[in-house]
Amino acid sequence: MNNRIALITGASRGLGKNAALKLAASGVDVILTYRSRKDEADAVVAEIETLGARAVALALDIGNSASFDAFAGQVRDALATTWQRERFDFLVNNAGIGVYGTIDQTSEAQFDELMNIHLKGPFFLTQKLLPLLADGGRILNVSTGLTRFALPGYGAYATMKGGIEVLTKYLAKELGPRGIAVNVLAPGAIETDFGGGRVRDNEELNAFVASQTALGRVGLPDDIGDVIAILLSDGARWVNAQRIEASGGMFL
């Protein structure tokens, strides 16, 4: 029996990498994307292979929608070459950047960059990959807890993620006839290098987040990778069009 295949954007580090390893450990093969650090992506591929799964790393700038046709062709080629298949099973729209700045400090260029990476990019990448996504598959979009609670400095970023949460519902509705379930995962504050590693490295911020979290600590990458693996498992097949927050209970 062939393993199922997940395509995870931005999986050379951070939450995407963790999700790729968790999925590989559960018997899912991975197509992972990276923006510029091929060495990091190749290291993740090697780690996945030690877990007994297969993996391919492809370059992708999620902020450049003009490149998506060519990228879809690379995915098609990888499926044929590595798996002798025409379809993959799971799409995880994870790639992103963090830009910190209050609304009065946010430039139009920063706004446009966030929109291209976090909203326009996932919208049109998903569109281009739909012919390659298997019927009965899954799409999981990554959002943020910041769409439910507001922390000054993340207004533009959270605005784009709010759009992703609405998009998730429309994708679920339109792809339902193909048996494709679509959900959105909203992580809370996680200790990674995202956004310059503020949550991980700023002791004051880390302590504040922990104090506002019911479980009393800041999230770790494993906390999110495990949830992604669960949401793509057979046991979650009837979960559809839902926003699932994984924050340990922030700001209750």
What oligomerization state is this entry in?
single chain
Number of strands: 7
Global outline: globular
CATH H-level superfamily: NAD(P)-binding Rossmann-like Domain
The CATH architecture can be given as 3-Layer(aba) Sandwich
Indicate the proportion of strand residues.
15-25%
Mean pLDDT: 95
Cα radius of gyration in angstroms = 17 Å
Reported for the largest beta sheet, the result is: 7 strands, parallel
Query: How many helix segments?
Result: 8
CA-CA gap between termini: 44 Å
CATH topology assignment = Rossmann fold
**Order of strands across the main sheet:** 3-2-1-4-5-6-7
How many domains would you count in the coordinates? 1
CATH classification class: Alpha Beta
Please mark out the parts with pLDDT under 50 across 5 or more consecutive residues, or reply none. Answer: none
SSE order, one letter for each helix or strand: EHEHEHEHEHEHHHE
**Structural class based on helices, strands and sheet pairing:** alpha/beta
**What share of residues is helical?**
40-55%
